[in-house]
Amino acid sequence: MQMGNSPSAFFILEIMKYSKPTFYLGLIVIGMTTFCTPKPAETSEDPIVNSAPILPSWNESAQRDAIVQFVEKTTQSGSADFVPENERIAVFDNDGTLWGEQPMYFQLFYAIDFIKKNADSHPEWANVASIQAILKDDLQGALAGGEKALAELVMASHAGMTEDEFNNSIKTWLESTTHPETGKAYNKMIYQPMVELLEYLRANGYKTFIVSGGGIDFIRVWAEEAYGIPPYQVVGSSLKAKYEEKDGKLQVVKLPELNHFDDKEGKPVGIHQNIGMRPTIAVGNSDGDYQMIDYTTNSQGPRLGIYIHHTDSVREYAYDRDSHIGQFAKGLDDADKKGWIVVDMANDWKTIYPD
User: Fold this and answer.
1) Using CA atoms, how far apart are residues 103 and 122, in angstroms rounded to an integer?
2) CB within 10 Å: which end of the chain, N or C, has fewer?
3) Do residues 97 and 285 lie in contact, with contact meaning Cβ atoms separated by under 8 Å?
4) Contact 226, 42 (CB under 8 A)
5) CATH homologous superfamily for 62-103+185-348?
6) What span, in angstroms and rounded, lies between the C-alpha atoms of 322 and 92?
7) Distance CA 337, CA 220 (A)
């Protein structure tokens, strides 16, 4: 895919040149809680049988067949690999697994947009060099201070918000902003084959969770509408928060201090602390998901690890080992020997985004 010629597109490409691993760390700590009505859980112990095709946006392939066979053997009563419904847990990374992540994490698009749109109402930002550089599209200046500068960008643009303020800000952004390359709303750049997989698992008694390096409360705002996953089934990176008086009433306000970094080694910890059970199925797309998939499959009983490999440069993006975003090297090397499924987006999916 080719980026357009707009100043914003140029700035995004420049960001990718100077990205560091700590860039993502600065991004993922964004979030406040939103509350949604949960959907009723399925109670059947056997697979749901109906006339609708299974995973209709997937091509017939060994990868698709292996997923279906695993679900059937773990949900059919009497099977040697039967898993009781209350133990059927499936965890999914978000960025690059359930929706796009190129040319940079979508949550970072939000952070930059927020700074640019709200600078006039934040005179205190005049003394923050990294923010002033962002406002001038000076990437080198913005990143000159390293991790401290990146933290300043995120904290200044998000910390101090109440949960309602943050939720409304995200909703407004999603309704008014589109991806610079596809022209789609960001929450419409979800992957249709993955939405179908989520629905298929839930129809067969699996509880589906997001376990993301992205901000837990950023995802909670829109995940139920996009994926059917309620906010209490989202695990992610988070800021600390405080219950205090603001604008004349007691509210939850997030603080400029990291609470949990939910990437790599942090993902098994996040699962342990928030779900309390080792998953049966884990799905990711990058080496940031390696520990989550290994934690899931390296235990007794039937377990399944799945990687989504971005191989489609025409309908989406092709990247793996050398990518600044979603690097996929160790997982790609170890998948065969560990028995993990690697889904080839170009060959295994009929379509990418919902119609």
Assistant:
1) 28
2) C
3) yes
4) no
5) HAD superfamily/HAD-like (3.40.50.1000)
6) 23
7) 35
